Amino acid sequence: MLNYLGLPIAASEHAGEIDHMISLVHWLMLLMFVGWGLFFIYVLFRFRKGANPRADYVGAKGKLSKGTEIAIVVAEVVLLVGYAIPAWARRVQQFPAESEATVVRVIAEQFAWNIHYPGADGRFGRTDINRVSSENPIGLDRTDPDAKDDLTTINQLTLPVDRPVLVHLSSKDVIHSFGLFEMRVKQDAVPGLDMPVWFIPNRIGDYEIACSQLCGLGHYRMRGFINVKSEADYRAFLAEEAKFLTQ
Question: What is the DSSP secondary-structure string of 97-118?
């Protein structure tokens, strides 16, 4: 499902703000496209060879063209200072408190998304690179008391609706990009770095995780899925997953 801009359906609280900014940019680009097109046609007629038999190497000058250029610069500054920078600042300076958010780790690798939930105690268990295997892709150390109730999934991120989500991104190999188009989220996952990103999903449904950075021959199949549930259904999901830890 697409909105009037051709963008995917908005499924996070900040998506409307991003879409509004994109709309303003597109209207400005449309105005410039039409305006410069008309100006080009005018120039072809006004400075045709028949009306200007001798070449003029100085060029045409006028207040209208200069005023138009200044107006475009002002509009771009307004978009940057009035919309883009404040929107960016809110995403990087107003992170929710972990006690009030759903906190998950997402570890990217060629070509999968490994999801790590902290479990009922709210604490992430220790990971060890020496424990990484095909059965334990993030190297979770189950001997660590904090890791005993941790939950892990591959390519499946389940979240509750209407609650802040704080994702800690990292990568095991190369640079990937965590793209949640319906949430209007895109953040690089860089090896050796913890890259935090947050959003508030406000629409129950199933969405896709895409890798937006070319990461190898299998890049095209690096897909994951987000399932946004009600709070009750999310709790039921955690309880169901926890049953497998005792088997």
Answer: PGGGSEEEEEEEETTEEEEEE-
Q: Are strands 185-189 and 176-180 parallel, antiparallel or unpaired?
A: antiparallel
Per-residue model confidence (pLDDT) at position 174: 95
CB 185 within 8 A of CB 197: yes
Containing 146, the helix (H) or strand (E) segment is none
> Does the bond joining 178 to the residue before it have cis omega, within 30 degrees of 0?
no
Q: How far apart are CA 175 and CA 214, in angstroms?
A: 8
Closest to 105 measured CA to CA, from 83, 127, 87, 134 = 127
Q: Under a CB-based contact definition with an 8 Å cutoff, are residues 76 and 36 in contact? A: no
Tokens 């497998």, residue?
Answer: 244
Between vectors from CA 20 to CA 220 and to CA 27, what angle results, nearest 5°? 95
**Structural tokens at position 71:** 């107006």
Residue-wise pLDDT tens digits, 181-222: 999 999 999 999 999 999 999 999 999 999 999 999 999 999
Instruction: List pLDDT tens digits, range 72-121.
Output: 889 889 888 888 888 888 888 888 888 899 999 999 999 999 999 998 88
Rounded Cα–Cα distance for residues 194 and 155 (Å): 19
Answer for the pair 200, 102: CB distance below 8 angstroms, yes or no.
no
Nearest to 116 by CA among 68, 158, 73: 158
